[in-house]
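Quick question: what would this complex look like in 3D?
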Amino acid sequence: MEKKNGLEVKDLINIGVFCAIYFVAMFITGMVCRTLPILFIFMPGLIGLVCGTIYMLFLTKVKKKGMVLIMAIIIGTVMFAINKMWLTLAMSLIVGILAEIIISSGSFKDRKKNILGYAVYTCWTMGPMATIWLYRDWFINKMTSTGGQAYVDAIMQITPGWMFFVMLAFALAGGVAGGFLGNSLIRKHFKKSGIA
Amino acid sequence: MKSFCLDPRTKLVLIVVINLVMVTDIPCWFESIIVSFCVLLLFLSQKSAAAFKYMILFLVMIAGEKVLMPVTSGGVQVIIGLFSMMFRKFLPLIIILHLVISTTRVSEFSAAMEKMHVPKEIIIPFSVMFRFFPTVHEEWDAIRDAMKMRGIGISAGNMITEPIHTLEYILVPLLNSTVRIGEELSAASLARGLDTPEGRTNFCRIGWSGYDLFVIAACVILLLLSAGIGSFIL
């Protein structure tokens, strides 16, 4: 089993470490974006921007088939346990598989494919977001009980149907920007300190 | 009598059930039952100080909603509402996570996952991740102290005026130190033979007991009650 997919224990531990850092950065960004309704729209994009460095460094550390998918499964499961929307898990699996195909087709070294794969992976954040449109009543109910009526009204006002595609575009753009930022930081800092 | 101790699998069920029943606008009396149940479990696991603290916190939140909210208005009311209503929805989950994290060792957790036949490719990253959350927190505190000494503060103002630089100042040292710790960890676990192809033996004995039965029964009752109230998930 180990020989086949090439993932050794060392790699699995690295995946765990990066899952922890990714999760913390993603969760804090998400929390900050929850404070103002207008920031809510930018949440997927901002998560993409903030976590780009972590993800790019992750790609330089492991470089084995399956790493992208395992991380997607773990982050998806933990987020699903927190926000209880099955779309989180479904979307994580779909973009996880897509990103895995894109990134491993460049054998983890192709910069463009890495950035594209990361941008695709960032779209998992659109899974929970899609609840706004697909399960509007449930979403309103949940948000009213945790955020108050005024907050929900504001969110509903700024999220007509086409907003989904705007947010998806933000997620992709944020992912690409985060990927570029990550690559430049890796060249500037991590190569020097011998981490990457 | 054996001291109160739950099987990790029961704890998993507990987390899922508490998550499920706390979803939407449940009535106050049902919320009180859930919180009391969680606090009782914490009390039974010899964490009476924490149990007491959470109970007081819950009562303060209830008082905030019932007594303070009607007499205040405007911004003050929003802040009190945020604390006493929004944060209160997470309280049972926080109590259960406190219980689970403080009473489960990582090896117990991975032994239970092995019994559930979860593949190694998922178990190892999962247990490493939970072990690493406190580490990320510690490193972050240390980095913030170091930055303060150099006169670089992380404030909301900096985040808005220089977002990319602030991000760089936070992420670069954080990644540097945590990745290094991760490498040390993997060296340590390789030395302990985590990558041997043979099946591993485990020191932790995992098994069901009467307490598990009690907790699972209570979980079923909570689920039935919340289904009866009609606030259920997607």
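Answer marked as accepted. Chain A has ten helices and no strands.
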